[in-house]
Structures are given as C-alpha cells and as structure tokens.
Amino acid sequence: MGIVHGGLDLNLDWVRIDRNKLDLLDRFLSLAGDSLSTFRYFRNRPTSAIENHIVTVLLLADDHPVAYGHLDPDDSKIWLGIAVVQSAKGLGYGKLMMNYLIRFATEHKIEKLTLSVDKPNSTAIRLYIKNGFVKVGETEKYEIYEWLNENRG
Predict the structure, then answer these.
(1) Under a CB-based contact definition with an 8 Å cutoff, are residues 94 and 127 in contact?
(2) Residue 3, SS3?
(3) Three-state secondary-structure class, residue 99
(4) According to the CATH classification, is domain 12-148 in 3.40.50.20?
(5) Burial (Cβ within 10 Å: 0-12, 13-18, ≥19) of residue 1
(6) What stretches pass through the bilayer (predicted)?
(7) Rounded to whole angstroms, how far apart are CA atoms 50 and 22?
(8) What DSSP element (H or E) covers 30?
(9) Where are the beta strands (DSSP E) in the chain?
(10) Are 85 and 94 in contact (CB under 8 A)?
(11) SS3 breakdown of the chain: % helix, strand, coil, rounded to 5?
(12) Where does residue 6 rank: exposed (0-12), middle (13-18), buried (19+ CB within 10 A)?
C-alpha cells in the first residue's frame, strides 16, 4: 500500500515470515546493523526458530525490510520481540510493528504479552509504556514488561 509515512511517500508492505521466506529474514538481519546489539534473539538461535512462533512478520518499505516482529510462546508466556533496522530508527517503524503485534494479539484473544528490554534502551521503553505495557520486574541489565489484553473475553 502506498502511504505517506514520516513525510515520505513509501510503499509499505507487511510480510508474514515462514520457513519459505527465511531469505527475507536473513536480509533483515544483514541490514539491522547496531540494532542487533539490543535485539539478540537470533544470536543463539537459528532463523528456523520462527517455526515455533505464533506470528513472525517483517515490515517492508519500498521492498526493503525495515522492521521485524514476533510473538514467541515459551512455557506459560508469549514473548513479544521487535527490532528496527539501525538506519531506519526514529521513523516510526517500531510503532507500526508494535501496533501490528498488539492488534494480532487482540484479534487472536491472546491474554498477555511479555517482553524484556535493555535498561538503557529508553526509546523502546517509552514505546512499550505508551502501548500499555507495565513493568513487572527487572534484573541488573533488563526490565521485564507485560501487556494485558483488555478484550480477551
């Protein structure tokens, strides 16, 4: 869909990622740059780990992957993960991805989402709080946030 985003006329597309589209995920990871220092999900996992996700999605701007998101079930929690390509930070793509994942969780009656974030990542923390996430714990390096689906019933 062609929309104006951040003052730019861009063609934005959502692409659900499955095992047949791992090349697109690899492309995102190769472009992510310094973002991978705070988004470490694939550091110790193969990209095929997405097969266990409830949803994995990329946001493309003019056919270039600019944001990644997933909902990953693990034990009793569903973990939300988001990353934005370093060169595209500050353009609102993280907000778009967050909106997509929360809408998905709401539509699929997922009761709660959990995420962890590096303490120094104040930009991400503001985004999470603005979208209804509440801090529920912390470690020396991370803060843990949860979002509760008000429409889960």
Answers:
(1) yes
(2) strand
(3) helix
(4) no
(5) exposed
(6) none
(7) 9
(8) helix 22-31
(9) 2-5, 8-16, 55-61, 64-74, 77-84, 112-118, 134-138, 142-148
(10) no
(11) 35, 40, 25
(12) exposed
Tokens of 63: 């056919």
3-state DSSP assignment of residue 28: helix
Contact 93, 133 (CB under 8 A): no
Give domain limits for the chain: 12-148
Of 94, 115, 127, 98, nearest to 41 by C-alpha is 115
